[in-house]
Amino acid sequence: MTRTSLIALAAFLAALAAGCGGAPDGDRLGVVVSIPPQAQFVERIGGDLVHVTVMVPSGASPHQYEPSPSQLAAVADAALYVAVGSGIEFEIAWLDRIRSANPDIPLVVSAEGIEPAPASAHVAGGEAPETDTHVWVSPRNAAVMARNTCDGLVAVDPAHAGRYEAGLDSLLAELDALDRAIRASLANASRRRFLVYHPSWGYFARDYGLEQIAIEHEGKEPSARGIAELVETARRLGIVVIFASPQFTVRSAEIVAREIGGRVVFVDPLGRDYLATMRAAAEAFGASLE
């Protein structure tokens, strides 16, 4: 554990010892989530009944982020923690520590019931990890996560079950409409492969008959040989767009883009407005596959 981590955990324990409790915002139910997209799920289901704290803030990477003391202290006031549960590094590093310090907080594993997928069919410079942790980039998976989230809210606040279930129904209708719209927009794409810096979009590709080719692998930049292979692959497939996430530096992506006469386009898999983020991503992918 780093010094920053120890300080943060110590502050969290101090907050618990001080007897923190109750909702962090008036009478609203305090709910903690790991990543920004989950916040919209909770807010759409719970409305004004909930107050959401996001542990990994917008612009940060769940592969590397360490929570601040104030974020950890917020967990002491919360009534529910909604984890992703797909193996993201933040939760591997922190979730057990948080729960051991606050064993009474109920935990929802929102990815429960989602079938794991390989991280990427093609990764430059090595084998892909066994499974892809980015389960939320599929609207169909998001629907599973929303249902699990609703179940958790009802369990801790059964008096408002009807309102939570109504919010869930509304969200599921929008996720279904989003899924159908994306499927229709990509059905006639002339090409089916796209190039990404970080392999965040595997579940999206699986759902819509696409294939992502990734530059970065498990946090490692490709070798010179790997870059050369990517350039050759991109030229052969007619790829001129490389998709990157704002959470990562993209030096390798920029090198490949220069070599193929292409450009880097940012798509954010961690946008807090999940529905808008997915629409924008689908539009960007679709334009690159024409």
Give short descriptive properties of this protein:
290 residues, five-stranded parallel beta sheet, 10 helices
Characterization of this structure:
By secondary structure, this protein is an alpha/beta fold. The protein is built from 10 helices and 9 strands. It has helices at residues 3-17, 36-46, 69-77, 89-101, 139-156, 161-186, 202-207, 224-237, 251-260, 274-288, and strands at residues 29-33, 50-54, 80-83, 107-109, 122-123, 193-196, 211-214, 241-244, 263-266. The chain has a 5-stranded parallel beta sheet, with helices on both faces. A 4-stranded parallel beta sheet has the order 2-1-3-4, with helices on both faces.
Overall pLDDT level: 87
Poorly predicted tracts of residues:
3-24, 121-129
Overall, the morphology is globular
Biggest sheet strand line-up: 5-7-6-8-9
**Structural class determined from secondary elements:** alpha/beta
Strand residue content: 5-15%
How far apart are the termini?
47 Å
Helical percentage:
40-55%
Kindly state the number of beta strands.
9
Query: What gyration radius follows from the Cα positions, in whole Å?
Result: 20 Å
What string gives the helices and strands in order? HEHEHEHEEHHEHEHEHEH
For the largest beta-sheet, the strand count, sense and barrel status come to:
5 strands, parallel
Count up the helices: 10
